Structures are given as structure tokens and as C-alpha cells.
Amino acid sequence: MAAARRPDRDPTRPVYVISVAATLVSAHPRTLRIYEDEGLVCPARTPTNIRLYSEEDIRRILWIRHLTRDRGVNLAGVRTLFELEERLGKRILEHLYDEGTRDGAAEAAGRSTGRSGTGSTGTGPDNGSEPA
């Protein structure tokens, strides 16, 4: 017998409370509040004002964390990148991720042959999804 089929999940549907969202992205809930205060993410609110994060919010937070931790971009820079991507309709963040992946592969190849490489670590968001 085939497994029961789950209905397709809507990535825009807010389902995660802040503690669960923070666990999913390996961050402190205060970090998510800071991202909200900076206008980088806008979780939905219940009638009792509890924050609810969607899958899209989680992906966006993962991108923010990648950009700040792995690429050295500050929160103002992240905001600018998101705004540019929105205005231009281009996938700036995908390009940054691809560039980091290429640099990381070149660095790894250099290590395996005994040469030292230069460049970033090339690590992207933890779930490997596209940017929000």
C-alpha cells in the first residue's frame, strides 16, 4: 500500500513560532527579532501578537545568516542586496552563492594538490535552497 500522501505545503503559510524558527536556523530568538527590527524579515502575527514564520521566512533568514556569517556583509548591506534584487528583478544572491561555491571548490582543489587557495568557504544556506 502506498504511503498516505501529504497535501502540498504552502511555503508562504506561517506555521513556526519564533522558538521553532530560531532552532531551524540555529539562531537565538533575539537574532530573529533584530532581523525583524531591521526590516529584513516580516513574520505574520496571530491575533494575540505571536510571531509566525513561514518556510519562505526561514529561507530568507538562512540567506541573511549566510551573508552575514560567511560573506561578511553587515545587516545594512543585506538590506541593500535584498532591495536591489527586488528592484532589478535579478538573482543577485544566487550569483553570490554560485561565486562562493566556485571559490570554495577551487580552494578545496588547491588543498588536495598541496596548493593554498584563496577565496570564501563557499557555504550557502543550510538547506541548499534558493534565496528568498
Give a verbal description of the structure.
The protein has 132 residues and is mainly α. The protein has a domain at 16-90: Multidrug-efflux Transporter Regulator, Chain: A, Domain 2, CATH 1.10.1660. It is 51% helix and 5% strand. The protein is built from five helices and three strands, in the order βααββααα. Strands 1-3-2 form a three-stranded antiparallel sheet. It starts with 15 loop residues before the first strand and ends in a 20-residue tail after the last helix.
How is this fold's topology laid out?
Blueprint: E1 16-17, H1 18-24, H2 29-37, E2 44-45, E3 51-53, H3 55-70, H4 75-88, H5 92-112
Antiparallel strand pairs: 1-3, 2-3
**SSE string:** EHHEEHHH
Q: Termini distance?
A: 37 Å
Task: Supply the number of helical segments.
Answer: 5
Shape: globular
The strand count comes to 3
Give the strand order of the largest sheet, numbering strands 1, 2, ... along the chain: 1-3-2
Mean of residue pLDDT? 80
Instruction: Note poorly predicted spans.
Output: 116-124, 127-132
Could you tell me the CATH topology label of the domain at 16-90: Multidrug-efflux Transporter Regulator, Chain: A, Domain 2
Q: Largest sheet at a glance?
A: 3 strands, antiparallel
Roughly what fraction of the amino acids lie in strands? 5-15%
CATH class of the domain at 16-90: Mainly Alpha
Helix content: 40-55%
Radius of gyration: 17 Å
Please identify the structural class as seen in this structure.
Answer: mainly alpha
CATH architecture type of the domain at 16-90: Orthogonal Bundle
